[in-house]
C-alpha cells in the first residue's frame, strides 16, 4: 500500500489524509501466487485492480479459441473486468498471474465515487491511464517493425526493464513471434551488442 502512496505523492505531493483514509478504508490487498487466475473471461469482475508488485498477463481467445497475450501488467499498472475502466460492459479476458503478485482491489463503484469526490484520485487515474497509453504507444512502434530482429531491437530500446522482469514466454508472446524466432533474434542481438 505504501508503494501506491509513494508513487501517488510524485503527482500529488500534499496528499490529504482524508483521501488516504478513503482509499485505505475501501481497498483490499490480495496476494497471488504464480499461475493463479485472477479473472476468467466470462467472470463478472466489477473491480479496479492495481498491481503493487509482480506481473499479470491478460489473455483473450483468438478466433481459433487459443489464448493470446493482450496485456502485460507490471507494478503500478491497472486493469478492470470491463471494456473501459468505468463501464459495466464486460471484457472477455483472462487475467493470469505470471509472477507472485500483490494486487490492490477496489470496487468500481467506489473507484468512481473517489474519482468524482477527490481531485487527487482523479489525478491518479489520469496518470495511470497515461502510463498505459504510453506503454501501448511504444508497443505499436515495436509492432511496426516487420523483421523479427528489428522488432526485438526496438523492444529492447523501448522496454529495457521488461527484458529483466518478464518471463521469456511472455516476451515472445508480447513480441508476436515463435519461441524459436525469439531465441534466435535474442542471441543475434546479444552477439551484436557485446561490450
Short overview:
The chain has about 200 residues and is α+β, with helices and mostly antiparallel strands. The chain has eight helices and six strands, in the order ααββββββαααααα. It has helices spanning about 1-10, 15-25, 110-115, 120-145, 150-160, 160-165, 170-175, 180-190; strands at about 30, 35-40, 45-60, 65-75, 80, 95-105.
Task: Round the Cα radius of gyration to an integer and report it.
Answer: 18 Å
Number of helices: 8
- Uncertain stretches: none
What are the secondary-structure elements, in order, as H or E? HHEEEEEEHHHHHH
Helical/strand content category: alpha+beta
Mean pLDDT: 93
CATH architecture of the largest domain: Sandwich
The name of the CATH superfamily of the largest domain reads Jelly Rolls
The separation of the N and C termini measures: 40 Å
Beta-strand residue fraction: 15-25%
Indicate the CATH topology of the largest domain: Jelly Rolls
Shape: globular
Helix content: 40-55%
Count the E strands. 6
Biggest pleated-sheet summary: 6 strands, antiparallel
Task: Provide an overview of this structure.
This protein is of the alpha+beta class and 195 residues long. It folds into 2 domains: 2-144, Jelly Rolls, CATH 2.60.120.10; 145-195. It contains 8 helices and 6 strands. Strands 1, 2, 3, 4, 5 and 6 form a 6-stranded antiparallel sheet that branches. A hairpin with a 5-residue loop joins strand 3 and strand 4. The longest helix is centred in the last third of the chain and has 25 residues, at 119-143.
Amino acid at each position: 500500500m505504501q508503494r501506491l502512496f509513494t508513487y501517488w505523492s510524485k503527482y500529488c505531493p500534499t496528499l490529504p489524509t482524508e483521501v488516504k483514509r478513503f482509499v485505505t478504508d475501501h481497498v483490499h490487498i490480495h496476494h497471488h501466487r504464480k499461475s493463479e487466475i485472477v479473472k476468467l473471461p466470462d467472470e463478472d469482475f466489477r473491480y479496479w485492480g492495481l498491481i503493487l508488485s509482480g506481473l499479470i498477463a491478460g489473455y483473450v481467445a483468438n478466433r481459433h479459441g487459443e489464448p493470446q497475450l493482450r496485456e502485460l501488467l507490471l507494478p503500478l499498472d491497472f486493469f478492470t473486468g470491463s471494456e473501459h475502466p468505468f463501464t459495466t460492459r464486460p471484457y472477455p479476458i483472462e487475467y493470469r498471474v505470471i509472477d507472485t503478485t500483490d494486487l490492490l482491489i477496489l470496487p468500481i463503484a467506489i473507484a468512481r465515487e473517489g474519482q468524482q469526490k477527490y481531485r487527487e484520485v482523479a489525478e491518479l487515474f489520469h496518470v495511470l491511464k497515461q502510463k498505459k497509453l504510453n506503454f501501448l504507444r511504444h508497443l505499436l512502434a515495436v509492432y511496426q517493425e516487420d523483421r523479427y530482429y528489428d522488432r526485438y531491437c526496438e523492444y529492447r530500446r523501448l522496454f529495457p526493464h521488461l527484458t529483466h522482469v518478464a518471463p521469456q514466454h511472455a516476451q515472445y508472446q508480447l513480441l508476436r513471434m515463435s519461441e524459436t524466432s525469439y531465441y534466435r533474434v535474442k542471441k543475434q542481438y546479444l552477439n551484436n551488442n557485446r561490450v
